[in-house]
Structure formats: C-alpha cells, structure tokens
Write a structure and sequence with these properties.
The structure is a homodimer.
Chain A: H1 5-12, H2 16-23, H3 33-46, H4 52-59, E1 64-69, H5 75-88, E2 94-99, H6 104-116, E3 121-124, H7 132-140, E4 144-147, E5 158-161, H8 163-176, E6 182-186, H9 192-208, E7 217-219, H10 224-235, E8 243-246, H11 249-261, E9 271-276, E10 289-292, H12 295-312, E11 319-322, E12 325-327, E13 347-349
Parallel strand pairs in A: 1-2, 1-3, 3-4, 4-5, 5-11, 6-7, 6-8, 8-9, 9-10
Antiparallel strand pairs in A: 10-12, 11-13
Helix pairs in contact in A: 1-2, 5-12, 8-9, 10-11
The first copy, chain A, binds a DNA duplex (16 and 16 nucleotides) through helix 2 and helix 4.
Chain lengths: ~350, ~350
Amino acid sequence: MPVTLKELAARANVHPSTISRVANNDPGLRIATATRSRIEALLRETGYQPNGIARGLKMRQTNVLAVVIPDITNPFFAALFRGVEDAAAPRGFNVLLCNTDGLPERQRSHLQSLQARRVDGVIIASSFLKDPSVRDLRRQKGPYVLVNRFSDEGEDPFVGSDDLLGGQLATAHLIDLGHTRVGHLAGKSTVSTGMLRRRGYLAAHAAAGFAADPDLIVEAGYTEESGTAAARRLLSLPDPPTAVFAVTDMVAIGAAEVARQMGLRIPEDLAIVGYNDIPLASRVSPGLTTMHVPIHEFGSVAARLLLDQIESDEPTRRRVRFTPDLIVRESTVTGTAKSQRSARPRVSAE
Amino acid sequence: MPVTLKELAARANVHPSTISRVANNDPGLRIATATRSRIEALLRETGYQPNGIARGLKMRQTNVLAVVIPDITNPFFAALFRGVEDAAAPRGFNVLLCNTDGLPERQRSHLQSLQARRVDGVIIASSFLKDPSVRDLRRQKGPYVLVNRFSDEGEDPFVGSDDLLGGQLATAHLIDLGHTRVGHLAGKSTVSTGMLRRRGYLAAHAAAGFAADPDLIVEAGYTEESGTAAARRLLSLPDPPTAVFAVTDMVAIGAAEVARQMGLRIPEDLAIVGYNDIPLASRVSPGLTTMHVPIHEFGSVAARLLLDQIESDEPTRRRVRFTPDLIVRESTVTGTAKSQRSARPRVSAE
DNA sequence: CTGAAAGCGCTTACAG
DNA sequence: CTGAAAGCGCTTACAG
C-alpha cells in the first residue's frame, strides 16, 4: 500500500491538511520554513504520490480521457490515437482506448462504462449517422468530440475532412485520366464518411456530364476483408470498371489484392484511388493514389477541442474540417509520375 | 451531474445504504417486496450508475488496466493491445494505453502516473534488460506482467516467444538455402528480443560449422526508419550479404525497400527473413518469410495472467513462452513455394 | 426488515 | 502560522 497523507502527518507531527498544502504547493500557504523543509524532506523520502482516486472524488476530475474507435489494428485509428495521446499527455491526461469493431451495441456499452468511470471526456471515431449513443451523450452534457465521422451534421463538436469534396476529387482524377466506367467500393450509407464520399463520387460524374452506372457502386464496408469481397463482386461483373474509387485505403488495398489475383495489372487494367493516405498507402506496390488527410492532427485537434471544453467548463459546437489533398501514386498513373500535392492542407474551422 | 445514492434515497424514502444494496444485488438482503420494487423502478427510471470513483476509493479497485508499449502505430503492438482488451473487457476492465516511443524516461513517467491513478495492474511491452522501472514495479508489489520483452530473466511474470530459438530457426533457414554470407539487422542489445535473436543468429552459424562475419551484424533498432538506415549501411558493404535476418518484420520491410531502391531482386539477390508475422508480412510483395508468433495471444494471455493476480490477490512469476514457427514466403524462396508451418504453436509455460 | 455510522484518502473554506 | 471539520459518493459491518 502506498503511503497516505495521514501517515505522513503522524510522522511529521502536523495535520494532514498541512501536508496536502505543501504537496500541492498551495500558493496561499504561510508556513514556518522549518516545518516546510521537514515536510518536503518527508515527501521526497517517501516518494509520496497523492491517491488519484481520492483526489478525483474530491476534485470531480479524473484526468482521464477515452477514445472510442472501431479497431486499433486499422492503421488509420492507430495514427489517430497517437494524435490524441500526444496532445493529452503533456496536459496530464491519460487515455483509455475502446474498440467497438463497428458494433453499435459495443459502442453503447463502452460509453456506458466510461460514464460510470467518470472520465473527463470522450473522443468518438466510431459514430453512425443519427447515432443514438451520440444523442445520449449530447443530452448528458459531458464533454465529447466526434472525429472523422459525424452523427447529425452541425450538432456536435467535430474534427474531420471534407468528405464530399474528397470523394469528388478522387473520382474526378479517374475521370480526368479518361476512365468512363469508374466503380465505387462504397462505405456504409449509415456512416457519414460512406454517405458523403459516395455523394462526391456521384457529383464528379455529374460535373463530367455523364451518369454513374449504379451497378458499379458496391458497398464494401471498412475492413480489408469486406473490401476484398466487394471488389471480387465488382470486378466479376460482365462489364467491369476500368477504375475504382475505394472509400478507404484499407478497402483499396483489399481491392488491389483481388485485382492481382485476377491477373489485372494496376493501373493499366484497373486504376485505384483510396482515401486517408495511411502510412501503408505509400508502402504497398504499386503505391496507392489516395486523398491525404492529416490523421495524426485529427487526433490532436480533437484532443485539444476536448481539453478546452474540460478546462473552460464550456461545451462547444466547434467544427474543424480539413481539406483533403489528392496524392497521385502508381496505382492510377503509370511510370515515374511524381506525387503531386498542394503545399499545406487547408483547414476550415467554424 | 449524474444522480447520486443520496438523492435516490430521498426520493424513495429509504436510507442510501438500502439503495446501494438493491443496486448491487446484495444476496444477504432481506427486504419487503414493495420497497424493493419501488427502488428498482427508481433505479431503472433514473438509469442510476454508481460513481466509479467513489466506488473505487471504497473498494480499493479501479477496474482499469494499463498497457505500456513503444508505439501503437506499429502493427505488432496494435494487435497485442487488441489481445489485451479482448480478454479484459469481458471481465469488466477498461484499458489505458501509454506510448513510450522507446524512451526509458517516458516509460518511467507513464508508470509513475499510472501508479498515482491506482490502476489495478499494468502490462509492459516496452521494457529493457535490467530495467530500473521494472525493478521498481517488482518492489512495489502491485500486479504487472511483462510481454514480448523481459527485464531480468525469470524474475517477473512474462509472456513472449522463445527468441533464441526463433533467431536460430530464421537464420538456419537462410543457411539451408545455401547462403554463406547472412547479415543480421539486429535489435538493440539492451532489449531481450534484440539480444536473444542475435544470439540465435550466431548459434545457427555455429551449428552450421562456420562463423558469422561480425561486419554483417548491424544494429537496426525497431522502427522502419532505423531499419532502412541500417540496411543501407549493410548493403553498401564492399562484400555485402546475399541474405539477411531482420530482428522484426518492420525492419525487414524497411530493408526490402532499400534493396528495391538499390536495384536488388528479392529473393534472387537478397533473401530476407523477418520476425513476428504481423498482418503486413503476408501483404507486402514479395510476401515476407518470417517467424510466426501469436501476437494477439501475447496480449490476451498477458491480460489473463494479470487479471488472475488481481482477482486472487496473489503475485505470480509464471512465464508463458510460445515457440515461434517459420513461415516461408517469397522473400526467401522464389516461385510458388507454399507457406509451410507446423500445425499449432507449441507453448511452454512455467 | 431497514437505518445509522464509519471510513476509503483526499482538498479547502473556515477558525483561531 | 497551523488545525479541525466537512464532504466528495460510495460500501458494509453493526445495531435494533
């Protein structure tokens, strides 16, 4: 058992409250220098650390945040988590990590147990559209921030990318390369990223003056496995696409694998664009053309939005949306085409 | 503010302790059915959740574990973390995640703050040999488990692989293929995995009847970047190796990249073996030959070892060591060579 | 069958 | 300059 205030008080022959004040460097404390140094010596000698639980109960603050994501083995969420921790640790917060595997029920039960633990705030990267769990959170008035996916547009503090624009740019890139049959490995329509990127895909077609073939849109989910399954269906069509925009890099990588298995050359027989620019995207061969978003910053900005709420005790509805940038690699353009990318990610905050 | 026991007591016209007993389903509680159902209705209506902080203070248990790792963006640690959470969540524990980036100082400060938070136990995957932080932990007598890396052999509860054997098998595979100049991209000699895998590398040479060339051993650390730098040095030697055993898959992947940049064909000009069999290993091209270890199980077994200590209130020195299995892929054997692998990972527990 | 009390380990407004 | 007390929200042995 670690040493307690009461024990120290007994050893120093003072009241526990005095030890507490010295340990916490109470600025308003007038104390005899002799007493102070006696106490400080004792503190050092015992390596006293106040019991965080007792402290948390009294101060109504745990200094713990939580991050709720679908799956940490997805590199996107791993990078996002690092962003959160890198922003939270210097401010004295530890971070709980909860994986939902995309199941609303697991999200709900995690959120419930986080509430029971009285974490100071939570960052959610796993929300659905019109998510009941998010609405509960909104009602409870505890600090939270949504990241990457929103639930009800504009209703919650949010950090993410402009997914509509991103979907449009990705698809326009393929159309610009001359492709007329562009497929879409779509996200779920129950998730904001899935819905908006699909809408962007359609908008790019409209802007180019022709309609997308509905048969070329296949729901692919968000895992590599569901991506491969969907890609198999898409590429087995009688009249398959010559290019595909995948809702995420993981899905794109799954599709590339399927293409390889079917003997298709990338990009000659099938061009592929992903989304997010996870580290893996530049490492696979051929390199994956994708929409770059600042993943680590998603996490760190979300953490700052959350910590500001906690410290100010004021809720916010601020939204930070990053503009995604097209990164061209070998999965769409053959040969030595250079990666092109605008100088700095532009941000729109509200 | 969430509802409290006292408020509920006032509304139900009973003593707070009675509410507590009903909420916790106290088996020894004799209570009038009318009172019970009145209280239960109130509990349901308010969705009462006991304050976990107050509960933790009273019960001296937080139901929180912590995992300390170098970096969650390394897929090895992401998989390991999932193993921990998957075992801990069903038993009612949440898990804090702390990244150290391999810095002893950050490990120390994380451990200190975890102790202040009174987490019920900690799993450490970032320890060094003769690690002072681990020795502190040992002295404090709070539950902990080391995973993947140990500090002082046999002194702590541990889950990992037989790294000496693994290093030997990996290297023997290359020697068996006819390579006589086999390089080693080594881990740090201050880390158990680095030390033992290197020793295995040397043992395989001894068993084959010839000595390893010391010039072919280059310290490569544990990140892809440090791996590429080391690989560059190794492959730029006047008389470079024709094969290399890398301490981890991430380092092996870095080496493969360098080889490609230098125009070397894999495996014809350079054969590569990694360690861990992270998901990425089978996905890169050419597929990476590697030593398979059950990463997810590392986490789940470590969690069980930890939870058993917590629940029994008995420390342990149990060690679980998995036997690594060679997985042969295209980075060492050209053509359609099948992955070979023994049926089940063998385990040695003590 | 239910209540009153003590206590987990802190912090802080209030006394003196 | 330092102490005594109250209270954060629970649980549980003890009364009655």
